[in-house]
């Protein structure tokens, strides 16, 4: 077998059985190997950003890495987002043949240099016989705790020359753990001053079980439990403990945090503003507030929370039941509130919500706390164009779950090519586009950074009109049925149909 | 004025009066400054790859750099292409405020690390008072010989804090020159063995004037003049000296080059294969063939060719007139030959042809040699998705010239968002999409790299069908009128109308 085949077989044997691809010439042997090796599902994307984002969404839902197959074109924005989400991904990037690189042909570039800012692990295979072992090392790196972006660069001749066979991927014998001393410290703080203590959670603490443990701890001690502003994945909906998040807007975050004298971090970070603004703080906690890390990304936060609950004698009967507003289908005009209500009513059992709603969705959390149980995925890196690819990958990972992608019109246009892949693969993704014809987030940020009142030319750089985008036409062009809605009743109807039907659908919400 | 305004004013004063933008929060002060400072035209793109490619196309046609305004998301693929095209671009990329970077907020990334592989000049402004001078230095770098990609990173506070005023951009007092010794050497070779000498030209030699000089030299000495496979810009059509190019396919290139004992390089490189293939050579010249560089990128090749013609006493009367096939509108089915004929007939006076036709367009050069005079632009970096953005930038640079973009369906999908910017700005761009529903280049490459016969799954990674893309719907979704054609007669008609009408148009050629 050649190097390419040794790699594909190693991947499949190592449990990596999905490859999101956007291949070029230097990847043709890998593509050929896909035919020879059963067990690898290949999903084609029309742009690298679709591929890398899909691998992120796949990992968040599946918990094990997919691979990507890329040809120079970086798709780096979505790798940045994936890295911040602590997703594990095995990227395979073709390079010129080892003997050809020095001749500076047009497609020659510094791929390692490009990969390093976004990948925790980067390696170039030196020859065909090394490829399998390098692939196994990449898988192991992707699977580590916390997971990593692993980029393996394959010169074309390492793919076509003879290899020795496959390599075995080391199985992680080490289970993620936690520090008993850190748990003890947290217990002490909660014993001492729970009324002024914030338990700030993210990552693996946000499973249904992790949240239930925090609910007991809050019920027993009276502390506050909150999430960071953004999470890779959070269990939500009926039957799950519903927590608030630190608001994005600094003026809203500061009063919420100001009375805490202690923040106990469960994989989270010391609260920081998303951006700096003139005359506003970068760090959001009150002066004199102490920060204590109980677990870091990659540790076993559920086990730590169990130990903490045990230390506090917090049990199921300590839980204070939560009240949620009733679900009620809205009627009348489409606005942020009615949109939120309509979506909350429409979420089916076990849905996956991929949220790039930006400004439109700032009020989505309260009404959806009462929805059917679901998972909520957000952008961890801030680079927009994250959601349609992540929704694509999540749907590949969980074919029996409905994926609902909620995205602003500006954000949608970065990686709109995702829709074609959804049609190609028959994925159960409903894409809801909020068409307000403006990068509304930037309109707010313009004010927030103290830039004054935008004149005509500045407005032209913020508005997405002249012409208005027709997302139904765009979706149709890529094989996805779609419709536009202008009232709450139309939106309810479109949501119900899209959720009931298999395959991809798009709904343009004209605001 | 704040740092952002000092930069905008410096750019305009320094002759950079176009900015292709895809701004984010950290660029809001720059956007605000655009309102305050007359003279800067701002063009919005929906994706970074549109922005960076537009700046490439703008430079190629205008000869002076545009600026781009970016927010993290790299658009690196088209910067790679621009760098290989030796285009000068001033990229302005926002970064977190200087005091905020260390807090590792979500959008924090190593922008310098990302920029370096694609930029010859990278600088992060340390404070607001430095911004203007850094901007002037970036312009000077972009304008150097050869031109460079200059990336200036602006922490947000350098934009909002007070500056001192604008900075003057140094004017290049040094005119590009050439080496008289190198010209002498070339003259000697042509005196000695012109019949076995190839004059291999690109870059600034490809103006109408430069080509006319090579035509005299060829007529006088009997040497061969050829171009590299790809060029940033070549003057072509009636009245211009028509030269062949080294073919992309190695089996075609080798016999063409095998009888040359000398290759004189006029900005070109020692001929190298685009990719390595098993058992095929990387370098394409015959064994024993000597390579002599007369000029490098950035030197004054037209002056060198004038000196060379003088040394050889090659005059206008030495020119051997060329015969070209007559233009004839095709009829019947659409195939590579009839498509080429239809386009050749339709090219209007002084058009700009942006060529990402890949496999469909391999035969475009012979028939278009007889077309109305035009410029031909190709991809220098091999990263596809180059043409619709470059066409956009070229149209902004030359509003009185019709731009015709010829692009394969696979390539078109990388940066299809360009169409919206063309509609936004009312650009005179006709986009012709060759819809053969396959990455045909890869189908050939699959064979070329010796990967065997593609089975079903490999074919799935090469074909762009299930579903077929509807480019007319996609174009309509972005405000560009379009139509699909299935016969040569329909294509002729669609071309004539699209060329005659102002504003952007799309023609989907169903093959």
From TrEMBL, chains A, B:
Organism: Bradyrhizobium septentrionale
UniProtKB keywords: Thiamine pyrophosphate
Domain Thiamine pyrophosphate enzyme TPP-binding: from-to ranges: 372-509
Family affiliation: Belongs to the TPP enzyme family.
A Pfam family recorded for this sequence: TPP_enzyme_C
Domain spans labelled Thiamine pyrophosphate enzyme N-terminal TPP-binding: 1-104
Domain of life (superkingdom): Bacteria
Protein name as catalogued: Acetolactate synthase large subunit
Coiled-coil ranges (or none): none
């Amino acid at each position: 077998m050649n190097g390419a085949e040794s790699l594909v077989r190693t991947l499949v044997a190592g449990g990596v059985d999905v490859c999101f691809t956007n291949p070029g010439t230097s990847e043709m042997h890998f593509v050929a190997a896909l035919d020879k090796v059963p067990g690898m599902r290949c999903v084609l994307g029309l742009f690298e950003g679709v591929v890398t984002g899909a691998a992120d969404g796949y990992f968040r839902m599946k918990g094990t890495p997919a691979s990507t197959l890329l040809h120079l074109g970086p798709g780096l924005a979505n790798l940045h987002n994936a890295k911040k989400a602590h997703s594990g991904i095995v990227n395979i990037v073709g390079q010129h043949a080892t003997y050809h690189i020095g001749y500076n042909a047009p497609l020659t570039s510094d791929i390692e240099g490009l990969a390093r800012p976004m990948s925790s692990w980067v390696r170039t295979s030196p020859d065909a016989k090394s490829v399998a072992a390098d692939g196994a090392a990449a898988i192991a790196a992707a699977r580590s705790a916390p997971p990593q972006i692993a980029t393996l660069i394959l010169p074309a001749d390492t793919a076509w020359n003879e290899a020795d066979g496959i390599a075995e991927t080391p199985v992680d014998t080490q289970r993620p753990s936690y520090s008993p001393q850190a748990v003890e410290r947290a217990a002490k703080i909660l014993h001492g001053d729970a009324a002024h203590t914030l338990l700030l959670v993210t990552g693996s603490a946000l499973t249904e079980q992790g949240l239930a443990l925090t609910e007991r701890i809050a019920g027993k001690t009276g502390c506050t439990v909150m999430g960071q502003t953004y999470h890779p994945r959070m269990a939500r909906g009926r039957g799950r403990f519903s927590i608030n998040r630190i608001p994005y807007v600094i003026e809203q975050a500061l009063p919420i945090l100001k009375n805490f004298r202690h923040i106990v971090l469960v994989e989270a970070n010391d609260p920081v503003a998303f951006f700096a603004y003139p005359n506003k703080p970068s760090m959001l906690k009150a002066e004199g507030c102490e920060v204590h890390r109980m677990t870091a990304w990659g540790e076993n936060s559920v086990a730590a929370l169990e130990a903490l609950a045990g230390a506090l004698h917090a049990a199921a009967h300590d839980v204070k039941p939560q009240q949620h507003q009733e679900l009620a289908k809205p009627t009348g005009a489409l606005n942020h509130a009615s949109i939120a209500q309509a979506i909350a009513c429409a979420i089916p059992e076990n849905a996956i919500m991929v949220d790039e709603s930006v400004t439109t969705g700032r009020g989505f959390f309260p009404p959806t706390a009462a929805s059917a149980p679901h998972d909520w995925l957000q952008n961890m890196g801030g680079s927009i164009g994250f959601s349609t690819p992540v929704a694509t990958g999540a749907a590949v990972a969980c074919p029996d779950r409905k994926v609902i992608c909620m995205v602003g019109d500006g954000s949608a246009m970065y990686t709109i090519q995702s829709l074609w892949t959804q049609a190609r693969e028959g994925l159960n993704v409903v894409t809801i586009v909020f068409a307000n014809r403006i990068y509304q987030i930037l309109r707010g940020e313009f004010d927030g950074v103290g830039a004054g009142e935008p004149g005509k030319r500045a407005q032209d750089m913020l508005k997405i009109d002249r012409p208005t985008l027709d997302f139904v036409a765009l979706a149709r062009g890529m094989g996805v049925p779609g419709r536009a809605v202008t009232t709450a009743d139309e939106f309810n109807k479109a949501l119900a149909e899209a959720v009931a039907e298999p395959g991809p659908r798009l709904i343009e919400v004209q605001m």
